[in-house]
Amino acid sequence: MTRTVLESKTKTVVIGFDEPFCVIGERINPTGRKKLAAELEAGDFSTVEKDALEQVACGAMVLDVNAGVVYNSNPDPNVTEPPLMRRMIELVQGLVDVPLCIDSSVPGALEAGLEAAEGRPLLNSVTGEEERLEAILPLVKKYNVPVVAISNDDTGISEDPDVRFAVARKIVERAADYGIPAHDIVVDPLVMPIGAMATAGKQVFALVRRLREELGVNTTCGASNISFGLPNRHGINAAFLPMAIAAGMTSAIMNPVRVQEMEAIRAANLLMNHDPNGAEWIRFARIHEAVQGGQPFAEAAKAAAAGGGRGGREGRRRRRA
Amino acid sequence: MTRTVLESKTKTVVIGFDEPFCVIGERINPTGRKKLAAELEAGDFSTVEKDALEQVACGAMVLDVNAGVVYNSNPDPNVTEPPLMRRMIELVQGLVDVPLCIDSSVPGALEAGLEAAEGRPLLNSVTGEEERLEAILPLVKKYNVPVVAISNDDTGISEDPDVRFAVARKIVERAADYGIPAHDIVVDPLVMPIGAMATAGKQVFALVRRLREELGVNTTCGASNISFGLPNRHGINAAFLPMAIAAGMTSAIMNPVRVQEMEAIRAANLLMNHDPNGAEWIRFARIHEAVQGGQPFAEAAKAAAAGGGRGGREGRRRRRA
Question: What pLDDT was estimated at residue B150?
């Protein structure tokens, strides 16, 4: 059985075929968040702190940390990202006890993160691009960490799922040359927007099944990409995730502060027999009830965590059948 | 490709591997609805009329009609059910144009329904019980209709999915002896409550796949049974349905007047590439927005149907991304 082991200083999380779906919180990422980017340049980490605490309370089992800010004062990310990554990693692991996912396109920032992270973080990411393979796989080997492998290469992102599978296979084989085992590769088969490509869902479900059966690897994805450009995105995401889980997907990089998506994942865990005695579902149902009663999800989740599983202020309300 | 063709007087619905998921509305059923049972005994069909219209507006493609009332005045269903079934079928097909599913444990009521129904209704149901096979299959043959086959037999409902598969195979083989093709058998593999049997979800997903690949049959289920006894049942149902659809389930007998379940099915249709250009999803998103704004689902759906796809009173509100 494929088991990808992640660790913080005190906590172990296993991504695996027989494990609950691993939710990797995506919020700590200044890309496309101008306000956060400006805060980081000004040395203000309050949003990072809030995002770390909220995501873990809402059910993130791993936190992605991306330091991809383009400073106004210095536009070279090779200079600015490594120290920022180090600082963010230190900050986040001082606040929460989950393993981290070190996310950057800058190899120097990845190495800075690897030096700063306690335990066994997930590295995000390698691709099938030659330059990237040569830059990242030695880091993966040196620090003995698992890595996200994105199935694009020097020719770009193929719309043909067979090509994306072949890229994933190439990365797994190249990693093996470095002595990196398949169970430390978490493949992202790339989720296309269903609004742009009508076969995007079926492609991913079939790819996940093949990656699991033929390469024996765990899988992840940027889940919300599936619904890009369509109305009621949360409704699409909340069906996509259980379908991907049923096909064998074992993790996703996503926003865990969304109750509809997290409800779908908790229910899918229950339905996959990855929630002994339904304990997590029952705990979540109390939080869900508080949310239905008007409380924000993050607040209800934090109250439940603090109160030992009761839904905070709403926790004593009659449970609906 | 397996295609089960149902017809009303004017409308054809195909249950099939390459078709949108077929929602069979379950509401017209006095079993466990004391108020409805009393109304029917008193000759009051107003709830039946309301249920027929609401279910179709909300997205039911077929309506199940069950006349299983135990009258206070006459406790013999062999006497009371056939005329009631006939009357209900005539009433419902006068109101809505979808095909019907004639649902009874009383063979005489099934035949009364078959006589009254226009087009090509679905018969619900045969089981692997010898007496039932001998009573129902001749009706299926005589009226040339498709039939729901429930995978229990004279030994009851097995907890072993291999036994349930064997029962389904037996029914398909016995039907073939009557000249009934496999594409006119819609197998219900029986969904157990996940709260009572932790493997219930995985059992169904695996069974659906086998039924499809090895017997070439369409499948259905009483979807809400999966969540029996657990809190936040709609959340479980709304993950179960997309997962079952991803596994190959092609229909369910369910309550279509529940927005969360119908949202999950519409999204699953989109993700399975059974919603050309996302037209149904976009139409549903407008209804969903009206529901989020406080309008009851059935009302919003009816308004959208009447208004040519706009979400009624809420239809002009800004669409959220």
Answer: 98
Give every residue of chain A whose pLDDT is below 70, as ranges: 308-321
Q: What is the CATH number of the domain that holds B183?
A: 3.20.20.20
B4-54 pLDDT, tens digit per residue, is 999 999 999 999 999 999 999 999 999 989 999 999 999 999 999 999 999
> Can you give the pLDDT at residue B306?
87
Contacts of B231 in chain A (CB under 8 A): 281-282, 285-286, 289, 319-321
B163-169 CB contacts, 8 Å cutoff, 24+ apart: B164/B189, B164/B190, B164/B207, B165/B189, B165/B207, B165/B210, B165/B211, B165/B214, B167/B127, B167/B128, B168/B128, B168/B211, B168/B215, B168/B217, B169/B214, B169/B215
A121 in the Ramachandran plot: left (φ > 0), alpha (ψ -120 to 50) or beta? beta
Question: Is A196 in the same domain as A301?
Answer: no
Residue A62, in any domain of the structure: yes
Confidence of residue B141 (pLDDT cuts 50, 70, 90): very high
**Closest B-chain CA to A199:** B273
**Can you tell me whether residue B187 is helix, strand or coil?**
strand
* Overall number of domains in chain A: 2
Residues A309 and A226 in one domain: no
CA distance A294 to chain B (A): 13
Which amino acid, A17?
F
Q: Are residues B289 and B209 in the same domain?
A: no
ipTM: 0.94
The pLDDT value recorded for residue A308 is 54
pLDDT (average), residues B191-195: 97
B167 lies in which domain range?
A: 3-274
Q: Mark which of B274, B295, B310 sits at the end of a domain.
A: B274
In terms of domains, do B169 and B300 share one?
A: no
**Are B233 and A321 an interchain contact pair (Cβ–Cβ within 8 Å)?**
yes
Size of interface A-B (CB pairs under 8 A): 142
Q: Is residue B280 part of a domain?
A: no
In a domain, A125, yes or no: yes
